[in-house]
Amino acid sequence: MKLETELGLELPFEDVHHETTLNIVRTANLLAALGANLFRRFDLTEAQFNVLMALKYRKKDLTQSDLSKRLVVTRASITSVLDRLESKKLVARRRVVGNRRIHHVELTSRGEALLDEVEPLYRHAIRATVGALDDHECRTLIAYLERIRERAQALPEVGEGPRSSDTA
Questions:
Q1: Which long-range contacts (CB under 8 A, 24 or more apart) does 83-89 make?
Q2: Is the pLDDT of residue 77 over 60?
Q3: What are residue 63's DSSP bridge partners?
Q4: Confidence of residue 105 (pLDDT cuts 50, 70, 90)
Q5: Percentage of the residues of the chain whose pLDDT score is greater than 90
Q6: What's the distance, CA 81 to chain centroid?
Q7: How far apart are the C-alpha atoms of 80 and 47, rounded to whole Å?
Q8: 79-83 long-range contacts, CB within 8 A, separation 24+
Q9: C-alpha distance from residue 65 to each of 71, 94, 101, 168 (Å)
Q10: Is residue 106 within 8 Å of residue 89, measured between CB atoms?
């Protein structure tokens, strides 16, 4: 369905770049809501699920700092997420010998069992939505989104861009 129709707009978009941005945001919000509904059934948040997945698919021991970088959240946020997961006995923090400030974070057997239950449902939901695209279309979309993210990351902060008086 066209975004104009979905949003009940009376006039079509005048700027295709604006329309593209709103389509990305609307799609991301819908996918996040689907994920949130699934995770809620298992008393998880999206952030908690992402931590569990990062721990499952790691090649080396991960610290809280590693997780905060990987998941693009602050150290305070990751501490809060890990505290909740630890209280549910889904993860454990293990001291690193010789360094009292660093802890490795691990999945517990209970965390692994929960992921064994949730992950197939999550992957099914992904296939049910993104499965409308074939592999080539997925790779093309990924490449487009990567280009957009690279450009967005290279831009100055909002409010720091050129002003119309600067270009005169």
A1: 84/45, 84/48, 85/48, 85/51, 85/52, 85/111, 88/43
A2: yes
A3: 104
A4: very high
A5: 73
A6: 14
A7: 10
A8: 81/45, 81/47, 81/48, 81/51, 82/51
A9: 10, 14, 11, 46
A10: no
Task: Write down all domains in the chain, each with its CATH number in brackets.
Answer: 14-153 (1.10.10.10)
Comparing CA positions, the residue from 116, 117, 123 lying closest to residue 41 is: 117
**What would the two tokens of residue 149 be?**
């993210």
Contact 55, 111 (CB under 8 A): yes
Average pLDDT over residues 36-51: 95
3-state secondary structure of 14: coil
pLDDT tier at 168, thresholds 50, 70, 90: very low
What pLDDT is attached to residue 158? 61
How far is residue 57's CA from residue 165's CA, in Å, rounded to a whole number?
51
Asked whether the whole model's pTM tops 0.85, one would answer no
What does the alpha-carbon distance between residue 11 and residue 107 come to, in Å, rounded to a whole number? 51
Q: Is the pLDDT of residue 87 over 70?
A: yes
What token pair was written down for 8? 């009940």
Average pLDDT over residues 131-158: 93
